[in-house]
Amino acid sequence: MITVDNYYIDEEISKIVSDLKANLTNGKLAFHEMKTAGYSVPCPVHKNGLERKNSCYIDPETGAWHCFSCDASGNLAQFVQACFESSYDFAKDWLIRRYGKVLTTSIKLGDPIQLGKKNTGIKIDESILDDYTSYCQYLAQRKINRTVCEEFNVKYDPKERKVIFPVYNIKGDLVLFAKRSIDYKSFFMPKDARREVYNLNIIIKNNLKRAMIAEGPIDCLTGWCHNVPTIATLGSIADEQIEDLNKSGINILYAAFDNDQYGEIFRNKLKKKLGKHIIIVDVYMPNGKKDVNDLSDSEWEQLIKQYNLPQIENNLIKFVNDNV
User: Fold this and answer.
1) Which domain range does residue 262 map to?
2) What is the mean pLDDT of the chain?
3) pTM to 2 decimal places
4) Separation CA 91–CA 80 (nearest Å)
5) Overall number of domains in the chain
């Protein structure tokens, strides 16, 4: 998520750059044509922003940019500043007036945010999620039912064509958004955010002692669709995630990672770093299946029986299957 002061920028990078080009009077970005495959743009620093071959890249999730020719870099506001040859305050105001939405922050006294370190003190206002669609056909195609999406506040942004997975810390505070494109296999996470275990807060809140762990949010939600309490690492496993797992109260963790070399790496890291009070059970996919989302209903039934996977009891969280 791109933020400027106490606002988040609610627009795609491609649209912001196009708007910039339309508003500039100094000729910068004149030869820019946004490529579908990436976010390369003319550098606004060297050649007066008139290079014909793009040498600058803007990260679509953070707004950070870097020129591979002159080595200039900065945040999105600094990119706007360089384009207008203006002040930093003008650039921030330009972004906020056009695309800014208020970001509620809750910072604990005595815990100042330190630049250059992972920020663990920001809490996002959940009302931001009200701006997005509650469900989409892509989720139905991935066999994720509507009720599960509603339970975990999963949303869809039709403008960016991305599914939004709200990520909460173990205290239950909304701290970041993970996004998944519906057009290509790309997953987006803020690079400077503390790594949280997706849906671990639900496990802790309900005092569950057994849970399955997978890699991605789709895999995690698939588990809940089959009444198996599931959490996800959202990619590789970070030390802070290990720390949270160790104090989560989980006694048995069922490792259902992808059926590839990275899945084995994640299993081994868990076994090496998790405390001895947590028993790890290896859950392997049937032949020819990459992850839990690939499994049919009958294969799920077999998996649950084979590994004695935990099931939600006494309607702790109610789930029903339905269609779009």
Assistant:
1) 126-307
2) 84
3) 0.63
4) 5
5) 2
